[in-house]
Amino acid sequence: MNRPGTIREHRYIPFGIKLMLTYVIFIVIPVVLIGYTAHSMFTVSIRDRTQDIYRGTLEQMQDNIQYKMNDMSRVSGMLYFDTSLSSVLRHYEEGWVSYEATTKQLLPKIQTTVEAANNRMRLVLYLHNTSLPEIYRIYGDDDPLGFDGILFDLYHVQRIQDRSWYKNYPEEVYGETMQWRQIERDGELGHISLLRRLVDTTSPLEVNEIGFMRITIMLSELLESVDSKKIGEGTRIYVVDQEQRILFASGVTAEGEGGYLTGELLSNTWVIESELEGLDWQLVALVPTDIVEEYSRKVKMLTIIISLACCVVFIVAGLFLSRVYSRKVSRIVRQLDAFQEGDFEKMVHFKGKDEFSRISVAINEMGQNIDELIHEVYMTSMKKKEAELETLQAQINPHFLYNTLSSISRLAKFGEVDKLQRMVLDLAKFYRLSLNEGRTVIPVSHELDQVTAYLNIQKTKFAEGLEVMYDVDPAILQYTTVKLILQPFIENALEHAWYGERIHIRIVAKLDGDRIDFRVIDDGAGFPPDTLQQLSDPMARMTLGYGIRNVDERIRLHYGEAYGVTVASGRGIGTTVRIVIPAVVEGEGEGEGAGQG
Fold first, then answer.
1. In the chain, what's the furthest Cα-to-Cα distance?
2. Burial 395-426 (b: 16+ CB within 10 A, else e)
């Protein structure tokens, strides 16, 4: 315990330091996190943008390759869709007819087709019509595309019937079936060939092969647009097949065609891939990671510098604000220390209209009003004690005890021992439950037992003139209540509500949500209208009978203004007294009940 007039010295971290620490946590740390996040996002953005640029360049290369492939398809279509050529190849007539068809129709069409190509090419036709002569050059081991002039050859199809690439050629879909492949010496010479049938479409039910064409061009001309310089210095571009065999390379010094794309080549690089439609090949660009890492390092350094500058600015501003506000808090603490010593006249004032000004006004008003609050609390305590005294008065009613003892004497006089015994036992039970070891809060079951004992005494007294009915919800028995809230109203009915020689009383107890609803209902004389009107006025109720005021006030003091007693009555009809309390399990309200006991 502290001695009066002294203050225990408390050790604590000053408000200014706490404010500064909080400021650092919620300002400086987020700045660092934002800087780190911005760096990460910017780095990822650079990588994504660079990859998009590189991927777009690859797609341009792919489009150029596709354009040249489409050009070769167009050239092949000049023969494929030529119905007059189909007519020539269908006629098997030797001699002059065959010679004339070859020189005047077949050869001019072939020459026109070869000349229509934008790239140097070699056209080879394999014909089913053996009546037409074979016309070809002898190339030996030389590259056929190295010869001058228009390059074309005519062979009979028997020359390729045993070749696997011919036997495995896909079934014909008119106008669509064609294939780009490296066959025979194409891979060795750096060529690639477009393979396509010549068909006879005269039959409406089937497409018959009447020949086969092979258009060969240089692979380097088809892949002319594949250039690593278009992406950047240090990059490499490969054209690989499905087995990752390198068919073409750009930007490579030591490794090139003929090898395979291995993990060693892919190390420390970004891999960007693009499919070449119609070739089952891939364009693979390998971009060194150092290109983007250099940008990332620059962004990282710039982010660190900006974050440090922001932290310095925020810390200086935080120190200034912390010092300003800590001074105001110190003045408030000194005033509270004065209040603790009992000096309520000390005042504190701040300039301006901020929160500290409002706090100072509130503290000053608190010092002025504290005496009134103490007085109000004291009066409230006295009022509760007065209610408790009235409760004790209600617990032991001399008038009820006198009447009961008179009834016991009368029963003893007339020798009604059984009734005498029951009345004595009920009286003992009633007072045992009423006293209840001085406790104010009791189980609902005890309150109902007490009412039952009281009514048993009255039934012995009034015999057939009193009838009682109970309507009790078993769910309420687990809860507690302030004691002696039912008996005063039953006693009041038995004293004032008789209307003839009989009276019926009904005891109702129900659980209504989180409330317990008690009702005492009688069919007696009822209250006069003026008396009932006074019962609805809290001020007038104070001048009425002791029972209603006592019970209502005890309930409101214990549970709050939301609970209490209401009365409904009709003259000559009867009275219903409703008593509402909260549904509280034993132990939940012990602290509050103890204050009332």
1. 164
2. bebeebeeebeebbeebeeeeeeebbebbbeb
Question: Minimal CA–CA distance to 294: which of 253, 233, 359?
Answer: 233
Which three-class secondary structure state does DSSP give residue 522?
A: strand
If 0-12 CB within 10 Å is exposed, 13-18 middle and 19+ buried, where does residue 301 land? exposed
Between CA 255 and CA 236 the distance in angstroms is 10
- Structural domain spans, the chain: 15-59+291-340, 83-169+176-215, 228-288, 439-596
Nearest Cα to Cα of residue 581 among 424, 453, 440? 440
- Measured CA to CA, the distance from residue 423 to residue 412 in angstroms comes to 11
Residue pLDDT, tens place only, 496-530: 888 778 889 999 999 999 999 999 999 888 887 77
Per the CB < 8 A criterion, the answer to whether 106 and 134 are in contact is: no
Helix (H) or strand (E) holding 158: none
Give the Cβ contact number of residue 558 at 10 Å.
Answer: 23
Distance CA 316, CA 24 (A): 11
Sheet with 281-288, strands from edge to edge, namely 246-250, 236-240, 281-288, 269-276
At residue 461, the pLDDT reads: 80
What amino acid occupies position 145? L
Q: What is the DSSP letter of 26?
A: I
Per-residue 3-state assignment (H helix, E strand, C coil) for 84-140: HHHHHHHCCCCCHHHHHHHHHHHHHHHHHHHHCCCCCEEEEEEECCCCCCCECCCCC
What is the Rg, in whole angstroms, of the alpha carbon atoms belonging to the chain? 56
Is 284 within 8 Å of 261 (Cβ atoms)? yes
CATH of 439-596, one of 3.90.340.10, 3.40.50.2000, 3.40.50.300, 3.30.565.10: 3.30.565.10
> Amino acid identity, residue 376?
E
Query: What is the C-alpha separation between 94 and 72, in angstroms, rounded?
Result: 33
Q: Please state the three-class secondary structure of 435-487 as a single string.
A: HHHHCCEEEHHHHHHHHHHHHHHHHHHHHHHEEEEEEECHHHHHEEEECCCCH
Model confidence pLDDT, tens digit, residues 87-122: 788 777 666 767 777 778 888 888 888 888 888 888
Give the CA count within 13 Å in the CB-facing half-sphere of 1: 2
Q: Could you tell me where the beta strands, DSSP code E, fall in 262-365?
A: 269-276, 281-288
Query: pTM of the predicted model, to two decimals?
Result: 0.47
Enclosing H/E stretch for 185:
none
